[in-house]
Each structure stands twice: as structure tokens, then as C-alpha cells.
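Figure S7 source data.
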Amino acid sequence: MSTSTANPAATHKLYIETVGCQMNMLDSEMVVADLRRQGYELADNVTDADTILFNTCSVREQAENKTYSALGRLRQAKKDNPEKIIGVMGCMAQKDQKLIFKRAPYVDIVVGPGQLQQIPGLIDKVRAEGGKHTAVSLGRTDGKLMDIKRSHETFDPLRDPTMRPTPFQAFLRIQIGCDKFCTYCIVPMTRGPEQGRHPQQIYDEAVILADQGAKEIILLGQTVNSYRHVDKDKTETRLADLLHKLHDINGIERLKFVTSYPKDMGYDLLTTIRDLKKCSPYLHVPLQSGSDAVLKRMKRGYTVGEYRDMMARINETLGDKAAVSSDFIVGFCGETDAEFQETVDLVEECRFKNSFIFKYSERPGTKAHDQLPDDVPFEVKRRRNNELLQIQNRISEEDNQKFLGRTVEVLVEGPSKRHDAAVNEIKDGKAEDLNRVVVGDPGAAGKSDLVQLDTTQQDAARLQKQQFEGKPLQLTGRTHCDRIVVFDGSPRLIGQMLPIGVYEVCGLTLLGTAVSESKADLISLV
Ligand code: 5AD
Ligand code: SF4
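C-alpha cells for the predicted iron/sulfur cluster complex:
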């Protein structure tokens, strides 16, 4: 994250790099908040920092390799400045633990995602006594369920709004961990057992976020629509109940939630989305494969038929208002050409708004790693990845045509910096890991996001300068259904909900002009 605020009282400078999903972005927000309270300020680069943290992802090997390379580049810096503190946090810290010290012996602290509140204390300890320190949560078989759960709990309310990609959008974790144990996935091991946070805690946090200016709240969970909390008095709260509660909070204009699990997309939730106007009819429901045999090997817990039933429920309840997106893994253990073709056929049938497509990456610690051979050659994975991506992009582009000439309401996020570069990468098939990015490097972030924008102070300054120089300013916003809209406008529109008339479709992006409330008459607002 490249935000730096001059604080003469600051005693330490922190550089933090975040890869991975929205959960990681939120975790970084919390750690930065914690350290700011101890007098830290953020540095733009490792050279200026005396404390360097990597918030890591373990979902695919590539993400881990990137972190190990980044650590490798610090070897000399640590030799030259042994007092620099280097910490590894997040899923890779939980998964690799001792291995990190082995591969990068100059790392000082290793902290799993359930122990992040220990970071300030551990840094102080290193400064005072030196040595290597580890704080990780219990493994899935390391004790009583209650103790394991407690060791994975997070400390969400103590966060720092300035770490958000934009001040108007905020993540809110409602669920920790996962119990689905898909055979390819490391998350149940790194994030621990599934637990729904207390609804009152979630509500209170949402009120704070709204007071801080958040207009859009994105509820986070690995299987967010399976959210369930049972109180001491046996009162049960599900996602639909939670949405009803949050809907009443003044200031919040949009509620989204990611990521959903197909089997738990019931009518209660869908009718709630239909009836509550703040709820986005955007549903990210990973299918992973269109072949029953592959889904079985993945232990996804549903069949293609059941996924189709879910799509039918969505269409029946929300009609064409709904936008469904998906994730796919290609080249999973034993995937044949015929099985891959079933995925292609289902993508054609379901016509997702967009899909994130990944080449299978074997993860030690998972069932697939232990029991199934990773036998699809890399070249085949790559070919299938590109093929599916091209099909999906064609579908997205075709379906976007329906917006031509229509007016959509967007929440204006900020300048459309690097937007075109990101879209071109998708087209070239290079962006497999587009949703695994470094925070502060606004390529893209999050499963629901194709392009991540940042409105850091530097951006604001750049914008004002651009305005001053009279250059047209390209802004980006997002529709209720998470479609990206690019249009020209003034920076004072950032953070507003605005009607935009769409006049062109460019790949996954809608190009438009700010219009008056009346759809018929296009009046520029800038
Ligand atoms: N290899 C490749 N992709 C994976 N995902 C999860 N585990 C793996 C893996 N081992 C993908 C799934 C999931 C997304 C977050 O990452 O598609 O939905
Ligand atoms: Fe991983 Fe499956 Fe849980 Fe998603 S549902 S986090 S893919 S184990």
C-alpha cells in the first residue's frame, strides 16, 4: 500500500504488501490500524521502512512463489540493516510456519491469519530481545473444536478506514474459516473451522463503517451464504436475517456479499435480495467444473444438475436483474478433454457475468495432494485456461451489449488508472491471478472485482493536477451488479451514486456519460 501520511510523532515506518483475497485486504487494514495506534506511519517502499510485512496467500503455488521471491530480494537489505524487521503474516505463515525461516532465515516473525493481534507485541519483542517469533493458530486436529475455533478468531472492529481501496466501500467479515474441505483447497487448514460472527458485532461494525462514510458494504465469508449463528438462547441468524438488519442502517446504500456456495442459495436468501433494494443482485457462486465426475473428485458437494437448479431458482426469483459470476479450476487431477468440454458447454449455457479461471495448483496439506495425481500437463492446463477465458470474455461482451443506450446507476470509485492494461491482460490470458494482487498496485483485487481502483492521496493530488491542467478525467464506477463503467467526470463525483448513460461496450467494460435522472435526456454533469 503506497499511502503515506506525514506524522512527525511517528516512531516507525511500516511497509506492507498484501496479496490474496478480500479477507487479506481486510486483515491488512486491521494490522495497519493496530500499528498506527502504536505510532507507525506507512512507507511507500521497503527502503524507507524499518518494518516490512508481507500478507500472504496460499491458494495457489504461484502466489507463494511471489512472496518467496519478494523475501529473497530483502536478503541483502536485511544484511545491510539488521535492525529492519521482516514479518510474514497470513495464510502462507499459517501453512508453512518453520519452512519460512528455513527459506528466508532473516525473517523475524511469522504470524497466521488468526493471530494478527499479536503482531505489534511480537515486533516489540524482536526489537527488545531479537530472536525469531511465531504466532499461529491451532491445526484442524490440534485440540478441542472450541479451542481451535478460538485460535482462528479475528479482531475485525479495530480497523483503519484509510487502508480501504476507496472510503465509500468497506469489507465486513461475517464468517471465518471453512468446513467444506474441497479436495484441492488449503483454506480450511489456513483459516480454520467455519464460524459465523455474532450478528450484533456485525451490526455494530456496519454502523461504524456507515458513520465513516461507507456507502457500499461487502460482506465476506468463504461460503458467505452458509452464514449461520446460533445464540445462547438458541436464536438462529442466517444471511437473509442479517441483510434485513443491515438494510436499515442509514448511509448504507448497497449491500453485497461474496463468496457464495451453490447449495446454500435458497429461496429465503433470493427473495430477500429481490425485496430489499439495497441488496445487490450480484451473486458470485463458483461452479469450479461442469463435469459431475470432476466435481466428485473435488468433493464440491453438488452435481451439475443441482447447480442448474440453483440457476433456475435465481432466474425465477430475480429474473434478468441478477448477475452471476463464477470461478473455475482447469486441469484438476485426471481432467480429460471430454470433462473439460463439459465445463465449456456449461459456461455457454449459464452465461456468467464473468468468471475467474485458474489452473489447478497442487497444495500440500490437501486431500487432492495426498490422494490424487496432478497428472494434467501444464501446457494442457494453460490451453484450457485460455480457451475458457476467451469463451467467457465473448459471453461477457455479448451480454454487456444489452446495456447500450441504457442508464445505469454507479457508485463512483475513482480514476480509471491502469484499467485498460488490466482488461488487455485478461484478453491475452495473462491475468489468471488477476484477483491475487498486491494492495496498492491497482491491477485488480478480490473475487468480485475485476479491477481494483485506488484513491490514495497521491491519486487525489494527481487528479487535481490533471483537472488543473484541463485534461479530461476518466473515472470508474460500479453498477449494483458489479459491472465496471468508465466515464469522464470531475473528481468531486467520487463517492457519489450517479446515473450513467452507456454509449459503448468495450470488452468487460461499459463506457458512458454522466446523465440527469431522466433517462431520455443526456445532460453532462461535469
Ligand atoms: N488450485 C487452483 N485454484 C484454486 N482455487 C482454490 N484452490 C485452488 C488450487 N489448489 C480457486 C478456486 C476458488 C478460488 C478462490 O481459487 O476456484 O474458488
Ligand atoms: Fe476452499 Fe471449498 Fe471452502 Fe471454498 S468452499 S474455501 S473452495 S474448501
